[in-house]
Design a protein that fits this description.
The chain is of the alpha/beta class. It contains 15 helices and 17 strands.
Length: about 425
């Protein structure tokens, strides 16, 4: 399979002042074309940095993509670095100048000399039209390897890649197809998950299988390489079925599907509704639920009951429970869930109360202690979570909200019967 390097230029990226989303997007696009991205390199706006990496890249890669550094300011060095790597001078590209003048004319302006610098490209190179900006891209060939320099602005970069890069590089795939799929799990530690599918994760397997972890969600990524899309998708299907058989209800979705979406699908299938009451998560649970399109069909609303008075007066949590057990306790979490369901006339209620930190913990109730209440049409259950006294506030709140969603998801699966947990989620090929 052909190999690509992706190089991102920008001091703001190196210093963490901006997030490089271009490399991830390009890597996914290349995978769809059957080309593997083998290395991502991020460089500062320093003379010589790009040239050095570019010369190394063409020794190891079949394709090089560069983003950034094509603007009109002093720190935009990509065109100069390309010319230096080729050992040629820069020349103004007439077509790029005309395109730039037309771009500015539609805005009632004229390009400045600084803008016209963007029309400089190395002698013998080819300018790539920019359909939604001023900076043309540049296509060169260095030591027989095609190299494409694209703007750093994501919208401009994506449009240029689709119009000028993808059509040219399709032939590089050599008849191979790379397709990817990611399964999402919750409620199983990464080490345990890894032991259950260890044989599927062996190096050299096709599909490749690996894991990623983020706030208690473990993703299982699968990369299949084959001679055709149909063959690659069949390989992914076989591996997905095997993983689901081993992990069961821990798997909640695939690719872009979310935990909130899986819970929502369960509510829709059951014809049930949900209300929530939140303390330490401060509305995050409701936000996750309503991020899903169509959630109004099953989500009735929520109460952010940060103060004990709201828990007591609005949700109906008995004052005696608060006095005896404190706001962060199993009984209060259960009463909050029941109160939300009763107040909003929902079938199910979720309640969350805890200590998100970084302050407020005690030896008996440390930071990271969270209780989740789940009120169902038949009963109310509570769950204790120990999310780590050293965990960041964001992590505690996110994990707590996700744990609440997962408790309801599993309840709905159990109510629906044993086959519901094994049913594959629908997904589109990637």
């Amino acid at each position: 399979m052909r190999r690509a390097w992706i190089i991102s230029s920008g001091t703001e990226l190196v210093l963490g002042q901006s997030l490089d989303t271009n490399s991830a997007w390009l890597a996914r696009e290349l995978a769809g074309l059957g080309i593997r991205s083998e290395r991502h390199v991020t460089l500062p706006d320093t003379a010589g940095a790009l040239r050095e990496v570019l010369l190394a890249a063409v020794e190891q890669a079949d394709l090089v993509l560069i983003t950034g550094g094509l603007g009109p300011t002093e720190d935009d060095l990509t065109r100069f670095e390309l010319a230096a790597a080729l050992g040629v001078e820069l020349e103004r590209d007439a077509a790029s100048i005309e395109q730039m003048r037309a771009f500015f004319a539609t805005r009632g302006r004229q390009p400045t000399e600084a803008n016209l610098v963007q029309a400089l490209i190395p002698r013998g190179a080819r300018a790539l039209p920019n359909s939604c900006g001023t900076a043309p891209g540049i296509r060169i060939e260095l030591r027989g390897v095609p190299c494409f320099a694209l703007p750093g602005v994501p919208t401009e970069m994506r449009a240029m890649f689709a119009a000028s890069v993808a059509p040219e590089i399709r032939s590089l795939a050599e008849g191979t197809v790379l397709r990817t799929r990611t399964l999402h799990t919750f409620g199983i530690p990464e080490a345990e998950l890894g032991s259950r599918i260890a044989d599927l994760m062996r190096r050299g397997n096709n599909p490749e299988v690996g894991t990623t972890a983020e706030f208690s969600v473990i993703g299982i990524r699968m990369n299949a390489t084959a001679a055709s899309e149909a063959a690659a998708l069949e390989m992914l299907d076989v591996t997905e079925r095997e993983i689901r058989a081993r992990l069961g209800s821990a798997v909640y979705g695939v690719d872009g599907q979310t935990l909130a979406g899986a819970t929502g699908r369960g509510l829709l299938a059951a014809g049930r509704t949900l209300a929530v009451a939140e303390s330490c998560t401060g509305g995050l649970l409701g936000a996750l639920i309503t991020d899903e399109p169509g959630s109004s069909a099953y989500f009735l609303g929520g109460i952010i009951s940060y103060a004990n008075e709201i828990k007591r007066d609005l949700l109906g949590v008995p004052g005696g429970l608060l006095d005896r057990h404190g706001a962060v306790s199993r009984p209060v979490a259960g009463a909050m869930a029941e109160g939300a369901a009763v107040l909003l006339r929902a079938d199910y209620g979720l309640g969350i109360t805890g200590i998100a930190g970084p302050t407020g913990g005690t030896p008996e109730k440390p930071v990271g202690l969270v209780y989740v209440g789940l009120s169902t049409p038949a009963t109310t259950r509570t769950f204790e979570l120990r999310l780590g006294s050293d965990a960041p506030r964001e992590a505690i709140r996110t994990r707590a909200a996700r744990a609440a969603l997962n408790a309801l998801r599993l309840e709905l699966l159990e109510s629906a019967g044993p086959r519901a947990a094994d049913a594959p989620s629908t997904h589109a090929p990637k």
